[in-house]
Write a structure and sequence with these properties.
- The chain has 781 residues and is of the alpha/beta class.
- It is 33% helix and 23% strand.
- It has 24 helices and 31 strands.
- Helix 11 crosses helix 12 and helix 15 crosses helix 18.
- It is elongated and about 110 Å long.
């Protein structure tokens, strides 16, 4: 390969890297801009074929271009890349840049047997997929590893990868850091970013050079782009879903002064030329585990990230970093790894498809037990892994599909080709990171939309948008739709289905009923008192503000939701973003919910159960049916106890069993468990062979006898320990406490002003006696 004539800071340690790499794994620790992402793969290629794992797609494609240019090669020949839906390399390509998701699938297929050296770039970001790949590669121990990291504990990394640590210092002209806050302790904030940012940008433009502004996400980038549009500089967005034109504009200098508005994509991997000033808002949008859910929210960055961001300035001349927070803001030291703040479903399935359970792998940080249990439960329920954590044939089918396991499970479970096609298209829309469509604002647009989509069903609209059949009142992001169509094409190809432009006719009811059968947990019902909220028995979602979900339907399938952290320590609000209205009847037909007998009624001498089907706290069906079996026995037992059948038997039985239970409590040497009179009577009727009301004509009261306190002891016991006492103008209930040797007589009714006298009551020798009326308790003397 041809060596580049451009000198980079990392070139100073080339010999040390090559010597170390020939013997063992190597960790390169350096700041941004040293050239590690472009030089190390070229040096490592002397040992064989090199695979470079880059955390972001934009970094993959850009670095491929830089390396290819530096060695005088064309992209796809000596140097290539592989990202979602796009690849340019062959079996002869010596250096391949790829995203972690792609590499994990390659690992599951052949354990990366076609590569000799694997480089994990920007490992300090601690992405879930790169942490898993690191654990898998360590376990396999068949590749030479290169790990690059800017900020992590070097000793811990060296031990984990059994690697030699080398450092490369980036050349810097110095960075002057300034803070823009009312107090040195002020934390970064996402409020009014555009208004706070503009004056800082205006002053920075005066000193010359290009500006790099770090913002939390696309929403804030769009707001700030509008606010900064009249300042005479090119304002360029840089995030995961920007167009190729914007990406090239951001990564290449121009004659005009530039303001690059970027997410964390510019924090590592990519070096943006010409940057003199970095403006750091101190905010990022990231996921975290909260109350058992993966919530997406604005977070303050870590000190390590702040250092990374500042390091983007000072490469070509004296640099500046303007921070929109206080100098002593209490930032955390490092950003927590993704595996500690997201669910582990995809990670567990990926490991299983690679031949390992997660407990067979060693991770740099321990995995949360709660997340492990939740992932295991979900995957077993899907049939993706067995009880030992081993991947099933169904799991192997789900994993290669480049979407979340839930959507893969839905696609594979569809019972007809039209439904499989529809699920591919819907999944493609929902798995595209950018919002693909929105209804136009205004009442007229809403009326037209509902006339076109009579159910106001998001599923109908999403599938129509992908297929180009949407209403005129729907605004479509064409770039996002193109990405969704590429994903749909990939899914359809994997499932051997025709492409979206030759799709089968979509049948809404058949499709949604099929979904309920496969994933009943997606069925939600409205809360009776809070109609904006829906529950499924395990979780709750709230209609998002821009939802057009109708007011009347009381049930829905919720295909997508996002979780936002609230103000409380455990509060997390889940918003439903793709909903399909449906009637309770469909849930009933799918046998969802639990059947409960609300009451029993008698009609024409027969007993009927009033049966309710309850799902997530809502009654979704109610009917009457003739009681039979255990339900009938319960009704007969209640009638006996109420005196409606076998007059006097129920009262006598209740009397016997009540005093039996008291006997066990007060005097029995070996107390037996208390007896429930209704349960005992039901069991007795069953033992007697009662199956219908008519069978009671064959039962004699003598057949229903409780073998309790012997008859020769019963009367004495009742006299000694009565449960009710009637005195002149006073009726009392009696309560006994054996452990305290205390009796409490409770006022029930009567006109007597004073309480009972001790001589009026049973002897209760050795017991202390108290009288209670309302909240007043006094000793009885």
């Amino acid at each position: 390969m041809i060596k580049s004539t451009l000198q980079l800071p990392i070139d100073a340690i080339q010999a040390s890297v090559e010597i170390a790499l020939a013997k063992r794994n190597v960790i390169i620790q350096s700041d941004t801009g040293t050239g590690k992402s472009t030089r190390l793969p070229v040096w490592a290629s002397k040992l064989g074929r090199v695979l470079v794992i880059e955390p972001r797609r934009v970094a993959c494609t850009s670095l491929t271009g830089f390396v290819a240019e530096s060695i005088g090669a064309k992209i796809g020949e000596q140097v290539g890349y592989a990202i979602k839906f796009d690849y340019r390399f062959s079996d002869d390509t010596q250096i391949v840049f790829a995203t972690p998701g792609v590499v994990l699938r390659w690992f599951s297929e052949d354990k990366l047997s076609k590569f000799d050296v694997v480089m994990i770039d920007e490992f300090h970001e601690r992405r879930a997929e790169t942490d898993l790949l690191a654990a898998l590669l360590n376990k396999l121990n068949k590749h030479r590893l290169i790990i690059t990291s800017a900020t992590l504990d070097s000793d811990k990394l060296s031990q984990y990868f059994h690697a030699e640590m080398l450092k490369a210092d980036a050349k810097s002209y110095g960075v002057t850091v300034s803070y823009h806050a009312s107090d040195s302790q002020v934390m970064p904030s996402g409020k009014h970013i555009e208004s706070r940012l503009k004056p800082v940008v205006e002053r920075a433009l005066e000193r010359g050079g290009d500006l790099l502004v770090f913002l939390p996400g696309k929403k804030e980038i769009n707001l700030c782009r509008s606010a900064l549009s009249g300042l005479g500089a090119d304002v360029i967005p840089l995030h995961a879903s920007v167009s190729d034109l914007d990406r090239k504009h951001a990564l290449n200098q121009s004659d005009n002064q530039r303001i690059v508005l970027a997410t964390n994509v510019a924090e590592t991997s990519l070096t943006i030329p010409g940057i003199v000033t970095v403006i750091d808002t101190g905010m990022e949008r990231r996921t975290h585990q909260r109350n058992g859910r993966t919530a997406l929210a604005l977070h303050t960055i870590s000190k390590a990230s702040a250092k990374q961001r500042a390091g983007r300035a000072g490469r070509i001349a004296a640099g500046y970093c303007e921070r929109l927070y206080g100098q002593h803001a209490p930032l955390e030291a490092f950003t927590p790894p993704e595996l500690e703040r997201e669910d582990l479903i995809e990670t567990m399935l990926a490991a299983a498809c690679s031949g390992f359970t997660l407990d067979q792998l060693v991770f740099l940080s321990p995995l949360p037990d709660k997340s492990l249990l939740s992932a295991r439960t979900r995957l077993i329920a899907m049939g993706a892994i067995d009880n030992n954590g081993v991947v099933t044939e169904h799991g192997k089918l789900l994993y290669p599909l480049p979407i979340d396991s839930l959507f893969a499970h839905l696609i594979s479970g569809m019972t007809s080709r039209p439904n499989k096609e529809a699920m591919c298209d819907l999944a493609a829309i929902l798995q595209t990171p950018v919002t693909v469509w929105k209804r136009r604002p205004g009442e007229m647009a809403l009326e037209n939309y509902k006339a076109w989509n009579t159910h106001a069903c998001d599923v109908v609209t999403s599938i129509a948008v992908l297929r180009g059949e949407q209403s005129e009142d729907i605004d479509v992001d064409l770039l996002a739709r193109d990405e969704a169509r590429r994903l749909s094409a990939s899914l359809r190809e994997a499932m051997v289905l025709p492409q979206w432009d030759a799709a089968s006719r979509f049948q809404r009811e058949n499709f949604l009923r099929n979904v309920i059968d496969i994933a009943p947990e997606l069925a939600f019902v409205r809360r009776e008192k809070r109609q904006q909220a829906f529950g499924n028995g395990d979780s709750e979602v709230v209609l998002s503000r821009d939802s057009d979900f109708p007011a009347e339907p009381q049930a829905a399938l919720v295909f997508d939701q996002f979780h936002l952290a609230g103000r409380g320590a455990k509060q997390t609000t889940s918003y439903a973003t793709c909903m399909a209205p449906l009637p309770f009847l469909w849930l009933t037909h799918a046998d969802l919910g639990e059947l409960e007998i609300a009451e029993q009624i008698e009609k024409a001498g027969k007993v009927f159960d009033v049966v309710q089907r309850v799902y997530a706290g809502r009654i979704i069906e109610q009917c009457e049916r003739e009681a039979e079996g255990a339900s009938l026995l319960l009704a007969i037992a209640k009638q006996i106890l109420d005196g409606e059948l076998m007059n006097g038997v129920g009262e006598h039985l209740s009397h016997q069993i009540t005093y039996w239970n008291l006997f066990q409590t007060l005097v029995a040497e070996k107390p037996q468990p208390a007896v429930d009179v209704l349960v005992w009577l039901e069991q007795t009727l069953s033992d007697l062979g009662v199956e219908t009301v008519d069978d009671m004509d064959l039962i004699d009261p003598s057949d229903i006898q409780f073998d309790g306190i012997p008859s020769w002891e019963f009367d004495d016991f009742v006299r000694t320990y009565p449960l009710q006492v009637t005195l002149a103008e006073l009726k009392l209930d009696v309560e006994y406490s054996r452990s305290k040797r205390m009796v409490v007589v409770h006022y029930v009714k009567g006109n007597r002003k004073d309480g009972p006298k001790r001589w009026e009551l049973p002897s209760w020798n050795g017991w202390r006696v108290k009288y209670k009326k309302a909240s007043r308790i006094v000793d009885v003397k």
